Amino acid sequence: DAKTTQPPSMDCAEGRAANLPCNHSTISGNEYVYWYRQIHSQGPQYIIHGLKNNETNEMASLIITEDRKSSTLILPHATLRDTAVYYCIPNSGGGADGLTFGKGTHLIIQP
Amino acid sequence: DTGVSQDPRHKITKRGQNVTFRCDPISEHNRLYWYRQTLGQGPEFLTYFQNEAQLEKSRLLSDRFSAERPKGSFSTLEIQRTEQGDSAMYLCASSSTNEARPEKLFFGSGTQLSVL
Fold first, then answer.
1. Among A18, A108, B26, B37, which residue's CB has the most CB atoms within a 10 Å radius?
2. Do A46 and B45 touch (CB under 8 A)?
3. Strand locations in chain A, DSSP E?
């Protein structure tokens, strides 16, 4: 699995957009970029994934650079409930690969 | 869809005892994963099943760890002769290979193990 670099922590004001960066310069051509988050005392929760194109769903948007070496997760209007650890995970799609979680980014939404 | 269920939520045991955790995946999900998470770290992949077959177990931490999924539904993770270093959160996840690729994992809330 590709290695990732994420800032250990970030703050964001409630109601503002939270932009979480991730570097994955060694990502393979067949690896998707997944984002999961983990709220305290809960299991990780799937947010979004992408391969080459930018993606949007009801939770977030994912911007992937053209060279696929980095990506940004965007939470458009952050709320206090978005306070969590966010993990960026390149992966070819499950099974024996198993998702490789790093330490992620601890996002703190400030009131 | 009632989500992935794990039991118990918390387990306190003495060093040297055996413990077993149960995971009930989302119904119709044919894949089931076990992860371990220690304080301040991300979850660490241990093993996974497709239906009743354990297809990856090389990442189980030692031969004291074993997992089963006898009928392709619920799964158990057993740790024999527990050590203090086994204290961690044990997470279960499930997924379906019958849905659109790529695979998305759905996690339970975990079992917190404390070994005294």
1. A18
2. no
3. 9-13, 18-23, 32-38, 45-50, 55-56, 61-64, 70-75, 84-91, 105-110
